[in-house]
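Here we describe the complex-level prediction in full. Unlike the single-chain runs in Section 2.1, the two entities below were treated as one system.
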Amino acid sequence: MSTLTKQDTFSSLIEAAPNNFASARATGKEAYVFQGLPAVKAEEYKFTNISKKLEQNLTDFSTAKPLPLTDAQVKAAVHEGFEGSVLVFSNGQFIPGLSSKIDEVEVSLISEKADLPIGSIANPKKDVFAALNQASFQDGLFISVPKKTQVDKAILLLSFDEANEGQVIQPRVWIEVGDFAEVTFIDQTVSVGESTYFVNEVVEVKGGINSQIHYYRLQNEGKNAIEVSTIETDIQKDGRFSSVNISLSGDMVRNNLNLNLKGSNSEGNMYGIYLLNGKSHVDNHTNVDHTIPHAESNELYKGILADQSRGVFNGKIFVRQDAQKTNAFQQNNNILLSEDATVNTKPQLEIWADDVKCSHGCTVGQLDEEALFYLQTRGIDKLQAKGLLLYAFAGEVLEKIETESFREYCDSLIQERLGSKF
Amino acid sequence: MLSIKNLHASIEGNEILRGINLEVKAGEVHAIMGPNGSGKSTLASVLAGREEYEVTEGEVTFKGKDLLDLAPEDRAREGVFLAFQYPVEIPGVSSTNFLRTAVNQVREYRGLESLDAVKFLTLMKEKMKLVEIDQKLLSRSLNEGFSGGEKKRNEIFQMAMLEPTLSILDETDSGLDIDALRIVSNGVNQLKSGKNATIVVTHYQRLLDYIVPDFVHVLYKGRIVKSGTKELALELEEKGYDWIKDEIDSAATV
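The structure predicted for the assembly as a whole is:
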């Protein structure tokens, strides 16, 4: 029997938690104890045996301390052409001293907001890792975009991770976007070194009426990093939340993305690429909950898997009885480049309303040999032809990134990977 | 230029080509005709290097090199061009970027300097006229949503860009209306010179009114069973393939 499935695995971490947000932490702890770490057959973690992974790799259940970072290190880590503000995290802790001030936007430590309803969006009862974070996070980032504010340049949430072997990093972020406001976030990790650590992140996003939120995420963790993230948002009337998630590395990564469409004419978009090699394992669980009529969700995740990597996709769409006139589209396409690579994909639609338009589909295949041959007969070298085709495959998701410099950066990372490794 | 000797090839254990012999010299146009299933497209595919086919016997030399030993991309760089019967649609790959990559890889192999964006566009504009292809098509993804005629025109356009020494047109006339046929043939004819050669694989004589062959070969059951001049094509058009089949099959039973 795994020792980790016992509820007390992370108990030392929970005991060491700060005293603030007492009630939220108590709720988190209770939800953590009640759920326990996922058992081997737990449906939600069926293909991602995170408990075993943690058991085998975590040696020190304490929180990693922030690293001593310099401005120069931060500057060097910001991708070329980026013009917006940078908010720096070090081992999960927000570091105001290294972060930009942003015009019209309120930024502070989460601990300065004693009344914040932590866990009211990312319900700890839904996932044990969200519960663990809520019970034991150290501090985090609070950011608020006032109503009618257009933040022209993207805000980069830049996380530097370098834990001692087997430590825990728990970022916590609360984002509020007022009515009619618009903002773009880029959530990017810079892994320093190759130690094994566990990142357990929770991001709660509260969008206002007609708010437009773009949330781009680049997961370029160290190849030994283990990560679980939960991003959850409530989308109000006429609001729109668009996420693009790009996963390029990590030992085992689990992303929980939950969109709750709570107002009519709201829209939730979920796009993702996982481009994996080695033994990387990336699991994207998305959940969109249509509770009201006249809302729309779009989803497209694409996977390219080489070596012994594994991709897991689970896309849940709930259309509740009241949610008539819902449009919900979901697609997951995968290309396997090796016989040892695996994909488990599961579209899951639960529709209770009777006047809706929903579609879903998933494919798992190989590179189109005919297309490859066609390119080769035009003099293009096989390796490059493969790269060209894979790049085109990924392109459909990449083009959803509206911030040009970030898109180009991701583009270059992907091209580099396709050119060299595949 | 091209010398095929006793070429045997099979796919999944079925022998399709059963001893092809063919000599093609610079400046010549050869037509390969024959009934369905005779091995015409297989021959074109084997020459271009399609991996599904296994060459079990025989040899092919192209400009003195062992063609069968080369990867498909190296055959192309050496100057072999296959115009596909069914050009592949490749979503997400822009026609222009694709072609620039191709042209520059071929040029690099041939020891020529690569073309910068301006020179490439100039060359493209010049070649576009040959096949009356619209620039709008080339700003789209490769062949995606192209009509049958547009795809075939694009094949000849690519051929013009890559300047091959041996062009193999695999059923380029299939699915073309008479205007498209004229445009495509025109393109091919303008690209003809004393230094290059063309193999036209076709089922119908119609194309040969436009691209006039020096030699016509009839392929049947994986062998060239009859060779002649363009008059042979006319005879085939008139009489069909049955008389040849009868001739060969009765000879075989004797």
